Automatic annotation (TrEMBL):
Swiss-Prot/TrEMBL keywords: Cell shape, Cell wall biogenesis/degradation, Glycosyltransferase, Hydrolase, Peptidoglycan synthesis, Transferase
Name of the protein: L,D-TPase catalytic domain-containing protein
One Pfam family recorded for the sequence: YkuD
Region (Disordered) residue spans: 1-20
Organism field: Methylobacterium hispanicum
All copies of domain L,D-TPase catalytic, residue ranges: 97-233
UniProt-recorded Gene Ontology molecular function terms: glycosyltransferase activity; peptidoglycan L,D-transpeptidase activity
PROSITE patterns to which the protein is assigned, alphabetical: LD_TPASE, TAT
């Protein structure tokens, strides 16, 4: 999909007049997208630079001190910019509000309608734990208690100490918000959850669950009612 919203700045050939060079370097024209500034920089409609993108990401992924357990800012340098939250073109037959998980590309989409979606970077299941199909949000939790399933305890005996549940908090694997996925009235044990590990975004590390950065998960959670359809695409 051609929805990254990135463009390379054209090279300056050094043959232009001093006035043209001044226009190229005019910060106001660059930031606010005047025709002269865009034409001189050869941006082809893209009025951003790495610095502007980083500044915006720093704002979006800043600290959330008012949470029950205050959430620190994300070190956005640990996240590939292609996984920053953004609105993209995304054609889908699904109804607005539907969540689409694309584990192959490490993205989660919320369908907005009119051919667009909000896109979030994600971590997904590792090899052997990937799954696909339709589900729905059966319940929602804030700072949920995490209880490892028996299968996990068998694979990872160190998880046994939480067999009766790990209280919510920054160290809890489910994080600040959780969407619990159901099929035919039964809990699948899979979730979309809040991750506090920015370096995990864009990788397959979980036992089938899907993780978003805490700030992204809170953003998605607030816009997702119970019964929302979730489509998990094949990997």
């Amino acid at each position: 999909m051609a929805d990254d919203g990135n463009a390379e700045v054209g090279a300056m050939d050094g043959t232009a007049s001093p006035g043209a060079r001044a226009r190229r370097l005019d910060r106001r024209s660059f930031l606010f997208g005047s025709a002269a500034g865009l034409g001189a920089l050869g941006l082809g409609g893209c009025a951003t630079t790495d610095g502007v993108i980083l500044a915006e990401a720093t704002r979006i992924y800043g600290p959330m001190p008012d949470e029950k357990f205050p959430i620190p800012a994300v070190d956005v340098r640990k996240v590939d910019p292609k996984y920053y939250r953004r609105t993209v073109r995304y054609e889908s037959k699904e109804a607005p509000g539907t969540i689409v998980v694309d584990p192959r590309n490490f993205y989660v989409y919320r369908i907005e309608g009119d051919g667009s979606a909000t896109r979030y970077g994600a971590n997904v299941g590792r090899d052997g734990f990937l799954w696909s199909g339709d589900a729905y949000v059966g319940r929602k939790s804030e700072w949920a208690t995490w209880t490892p399933p028996k299968e996990m305890i068998r694979r990872q005996p160190e998880a046994a100490k939480y067999a009766r549940g790990m209280p919510g908090g920054l160290d809890n694997p489910l994080g600040a918000r959780t969407l619990h996925l159901y099929q035919n009235g039964a809990y699948t044990l899979y979730t979309i959850y809040a991750s506090s590990e920015p370096e995990s975004i864009g990788s397959g590390i979980t036992s089938g669950c899907v993780g978003l950065l805490s700030q992204d998960m809170i953003h998605l959670y607030a816009r997702t009612p119970v019964k929302t359809k979730v489509v998990v695409l094949p990997a």
